[in-house]
Specification:
By secondary structure, the protein is mainly β. It has a single domain (5-66), classed as Peptidase S8 propeptide/proteinase inhibitor I9 (Alpha-Beta Plaits, 2-Layer Sandwich). The protein has one helix at residues 46-54; strands spanning 5-12, 26-31, 36-42, 59-64. Strands 2-3-1-4 form a four-stranded antiparallel β-sheet, with helices on one face. The N and C termini lie far apart (50 Å).
Length: 87
């Protein structure tokens, strides 16, 4: 039902070109102050998209987002320390 997506952070020289990135995937966020764009693409097309984006003249740097690789399941094996700090 849901496809696996991967995030790409694209550092650009000029934000006027932000609309051009919609052809590569879904533009999630555009930072006007720091001049970067967060783009989501299908996971199977990630490597091809990275190569295409690096060739563009208005792109400074392209980075992969490692959000998918961060562990989001937590265990309760560690004892709760809040009872030591209560009055």
């Amino acid at each position: 039902m849901f496809t696996d997506r991967s995030g790409i952070i694209i550092w650009v020289n000029d934000l006027k070109t932000a609309k051009n990135f919609e052809r590569y995937g879904t533009v999630h966020y555009v930072s006007k102050r720091m001049h970067y764009i967060v783009l989501y693409v299908h996971a199977e097309r990630l490597e091809d998209t990275l190569k295409q984006l690096q060739k563009l003249p208005y792109v400074k740097k392209v980075e992969r987002s490692y959000r998918n690789e961060i562990k989001t399941e937590y265990s309760s094996d560690i004892p709760d320390k809040t009872r030591f700090y209560t009055l």
